[in-house]
Amino acid sequence: MGEEEDASRGPIASRSSSWAIGLSAWLARSGVTPNSISLFSIVFAGLGAALILFSTHPIAVIGAAISVQLRLVCNLLDGMVAIEGGKKTKSGPIYNEFPDRVADSLLLVAAGYACGVPSIGWLSALLAALTAYVRVFGGAVGLPQDFSGIMAKQRRMAVLTAGLLAQSIETLISASRWSLLLASAMIAAGSLVTCITRTTRLARSLERP
């Protein structure tokens, strides 16, 4: 997650892990700002997108999967440095949301082009942004931000990572890109369902007396 208020932090199990606590504490002591960590997530996403787009070599595809996970590590650490490290700033919510949307789009659009169906990449990116919009809109009208759904960010990236790892194996035996296409389709469909379920929950909460 990015630099944010406690109420807008998604539930991430690894936040309580010893490696995350130790690394975030070291980053806080080193003078690294949460906002710079947020921006660095775009660097990893860009690297992953480039590897997805411009190479079909299994090692490159595995490198893309690692880049996806490093992007998530940045998303985890920036919030921890901001909140637990006491480095929260007023501009933090901007860095919490905007880099995530850029990183999502880079990776998902690249996956669509790489599997030969650009439209599914653009659709995945659009729906991923919409899931975040519904969540943030809920917070804007005074409700707790809703991180629920079958294809929230961590699950989108988990599906993409699994698709990339499967693709690295597939490229050893075939020139097809079915693994990446399946992952992209799952992300698009799951994000659509997530948008619907979050919006439904939001409407019910607003109508509740």
Automatic annotation (TrEMBL):
InterPro entries: CDP-OH_PTrfase_TM_dom. The keyword Transferase applies. It comes from the Bacteria. Its EC number is 2.7.8.5. GO terms for molecular function: CDP-diacylglycerol-glycerol-3-phosphate 3-phosphatidyltransferase activity. Gene3D superfamilies: 1.20.120.1760. The chain crosses the membrane at residues 36-54, 106-136, 181-200. Keywords: Membrane, Plasmid, Transferase, Transmembrane, Transmembrane helix. This is CDP-diacylglycerol-glycerol-3-phosphate 3-phosphatidyltransferase protein. The lineage of its organism: Bacteria, Pseudomonadati, Pseudomonadota, Alphaproteobacteria, Hyphomicrobiales. The gene is pgsAb.
